[in-house]
Every structure is written in structure tokens, then in C-alpha cells.
Design a protein that fits this description.
Shape: globular
CATH architecture of the largest domain: 3-Layer(aba) Sandwich
Number of strands: 6
CATH class of the largest domain: Alpha Beta
Low-confidence stretches: 305-317
CATH topology of the largest domain: Rossmann fold
Length: about 325
């Protein structure tokens, strides 16, 4: 069985940046905590999931995403980093790219779309047999963003990586249903009612988590909820009627696109593991001793020193 893991790159990097202290720097004093944390998270992921194929999904870099065009306040409630944090964060992005390239991890993005949409499109194309698949293929979405759980189906699972005290966890259709009380595909309907403060998705004012779960568990979709307004408590029905436009907008914002303009071949996503010479060179340059030992073995920590001694001796002759 082949296993394609799709990484929510910015989500991973953001988590890693705050999970490791800013005092973690290279020998020249450059901040490296985010890249170190990302590499650590990826090492744990690869060790546990053992992907045969791997891709890092990125947000659109050249153009605003369509959600920002439809709703300018989208994600407007996100906490803004301090100037110092922002500078340290941005300074490490090129190094993150270097690491992914060294590990031969394919990078995927689509102009005007978020990483969620990129992963949704790849998962859809793979499951719809729009790309060549041999010997079967499972798709694993790796992220701390639970919005992506709407992509879970028979061939797609969700991996919640360990961060801090949070343990890593897998979600399939059964695990999701047990926790939420409805099917993964209806997560977008739930969010249309509940909203999402983290992304500034409005939802229906006055409809909280409990009521949203009850409505979606019973009626499945946003459309069916509105078809049964007469069956609901008057107070709930009134809230739904008042904010119908916001509910429809929220659905559009929360729905992950599976048709982004993206051209890829499964063969391009083949992953050969982290134990590659370019990765070793970067880790040594950045001072990642513990990760070097975990991936390449303790001997790798002294090999470079011995090689330099050999080269210096050769120069004498």
C-alpha cells in the first residue's frame, strides 16, 4: 500500500516557530527555531506514518486567495506578530525551503488558493483516479487545522501531529463521527452555523457549538436545516432567518476547494526518506546535532570532522 502524506506547511511551521525557543540559533546567530521545529515534526511524522509519497502544500504567494476577495475581513482576527517575531519568522522561510529541497519534498501551490485547497485538490484527484495509482494509495492530511477534517473519507485520513502536551492522533470517518456526531463532509455545514473565530468566519449569531452539532447531526446539511425552520424552536429559527446570508457566506468560506488549478504527477511526489546527504549537510551547517543523530546516527556527528582532517593531511603532499 502506497501512502501519500500532504503537509500543511505554513501550519506546521507556525506551530514549530512557537513550540521552540527563539534563542535557538545557528552558530552565526541567525534564528533557526522554526526550521528546527518543523524538521523535528517531519521526522516524527515520517517515523510514524512511513510515507511513500510526500508533498508540502503552500498558500498562494503571488495573489490573494479568493476568500479574501469575497470577504476582506477573512482571517482578520488573527493575532499579529510583534515586529521582532515577524522578522525572525520571515528570515527562516528561505531556510525552510532549503530544507524541503534537500529532503526532496515536492512543494505544491496554486495561485489564488490556500494550502487547504491544494490538499483538497490533490486528495480529490488521487481518489478519483485522475492520476496514475498503482498498488493502491492512502492519502493522509497532516495538520493541526481541524478544518481539513472535512476531507476525510474512505481513502483519506487526517493526522493531528503532536505539539506540546497534545499527542499525535489519526482520524478516519469513524473517529470523526464519534467526536463530532456527524460525518466529516458535514463539517463545513457545522461551521456555516457555528462560525470560526480563528478565521473570522461569522456563522449565525447566537448559534453555538451545541446547537450547531444538534442541527447538523439531525439534518446533515445547511440546506436541510433551512428547509426545516418550522420544526425548530422559534428563537433558533429566528436567528437562522436573520443571518441566512451570513450562513451562506460562511459555507463558501469554510468549504475546501477540490478543483484548484494544479498539475502534478504522483511520481513527482515520491519520497525517499530524510536520510539524504543534502539534509545532513544542512543539519551540520545549522547545528542540528540531536536531529542529525536521530536520522543519520551518532557517527554522522564526527564524520565531517574526520573528513576535514583527511583533506588537510592530503594538502601536505
Amino acid at each position: 500500500m502506497n501512502r501519500l502524506v500532504l503537509i500543511d506547511t505554513q501550519n506546521f511551521f507556525h506551530r514549530a516557530f512557537y513550540a521552540f525557543p527563539p534563542t535557538l540559533t545557528t552558530s552565526s546567530g541567525e534564528p533557526i527555531n522554526g526550521v528546527y521545529g518543523f524538521a523535528s515534526m517531519l521526522f516524527n511524522l515520517v517515523k510514524e506514518i512511513k510515507p511513500t509519497h510526500l508533498a508540502a502544500a503552500y498558500e498562494s504567494q503571488e495573489a490573494p486567495v479568493f476568500r479574501e476577495i469575497d470577504f476582506p475581513d477573512y482571517k482578520g482576527t488573527r493575532v499579529v506578530k510583534s515586529p521582532e517575531e515577524q522578522a525572525a519568522f520571515e528570515a527562516q522561510l528561505p531556510k525552510l525551503g532549503e530544507f524541503l529541497a534537500a529532503a526532496s519534498v515536492a512543494v505544491l501551490s496554486a495561485e489564488g488558493y490556500e494550502a487547504d485547497d491544494v490538499m483538497g485538490t490533490v486528495a480529490h484527484q488521487v481518489m478519483a483516479d485522475k492520476v496514475e495509482v498503482k498498488d493502491g494509495l492512502e492519502v493522509v492530511i497532516a495538520s493541526n487545522d481541524r478544518d481539513l477534517m472535512q476531507l476525510i473519507n474512505g481513502g483519506v485520513r487526517f493526522y493531528l501531529p503532536a505539539v506540546g502536551k497534545q499527542k499525535a492522533n489519526f482520524y478516519g470517518k469513524t473517529e470523526f463521527q464519534e467526536e463530532y456526531g456527524f460525518a466529516p463532509a458535514n463539517l463545513v455545514d457545522y461551521k456555516s452555523l457555528r462560525g470560526d473565530p480563528s478565521d473570522n468566519i461569522p456563522g449565525v449569531k447566537g448559534i453555538g457549538d451545541k446547537t450547531a452539532r444538534e442541527l447538523i447531526s439531525k439534518y446533515k446539511t445547511l440546506e436541510e436545516v433551512y428547509h426545516h425552520l418550522l420544526d425548530l424552536k422559534p428563537a433558533v429559527a429566528e436567528k437562522l432567518e436573520t443571518d441566512k446570508e451570513k450562513a451562506d457566506l460562511s459555507y463558501k468560506l469554510a468549504k475546501i476547494v477540490d478543483s484548484a488549478s494544479l498539475d502534478f504527477k504522483l511520481a513527482d511526489l515520491k519520497f525517499g526518506g530524510l536520510a539524504q546527504d543534502p539534509v545532513l549537510d544542512l543539519f551540520k551547517a545549522w547545528g542540528f546535532k540531536s536531529l542529525t543523530a536521530k536520522i543519520f546516527g551518532e557517527k554522522a556527528l564526527t564524520e565531517n570532522h574526520e573528513e576535514e582532517e583527511d583533506r588537510n593531511q592530503l594538502k601536505l603532499f
